[in-house]
C-alpha cells in the first residue's frame, strides 16, 4: 500500500495541528508549515501528493502559493481553505470553507488524490 503524502500550509497553530492529526488518523504521511514560503522548498524537493493550504496567511498567501505550484508543478492537486474566499477554481484545485466540516474535508482530499496518481 502506497502512503500518500500531504503538505499542510496553515498559519493558525490550532487549525494546523487539527489538520495534521485528522489526516494522520486517515493514514496519510503529513508535513506541515506555517506559510507558502516555507512550503516551496518542500514542494520543489519532491512534491507531495496533495497540498492543503489556507488562503489568508502572512507572507506568501495561499493564492500566491497556488500560482507557484501551478507554474512549477501543474498537476499537483491543491485544496484551499478559507473563511473569506468564495469562488470558482481551476481543475486540480478544490476549496473548503472554514470552519470546515471534517467529512467534507476528507471527501475533498480523497477526491483530489483519486484524480491524481501517487508520486513515484
Automatic annotation (TrEMBL):
The modification 4-aspartylphosphate is found at residue 54. Residues 5-113 form the Response regulatory domain. Keywords: Phosphoprotein. PROSITE patterns: RESPONSE_REGULATORY. The keyword Phosphoprotein applies. GO terms for biological process: phosphorelay signal transduction system. Pfam families: Response_reg. InterPro entries: Bact_response_regulator, CheY-like_superfamily, Sig_transdc_resp-reg_receiver. PANTHER family: RESPONSE REGULATORY DOMAIN-CONTAINING PROTEIN (PTHR44591:SF3), STRESS RESPONSE REGULATOR PROTEIN 1 (PTHR44591). This is Response regulatory domain-containing protein. It comes from uncultured Thermomicrobiales bacterium.
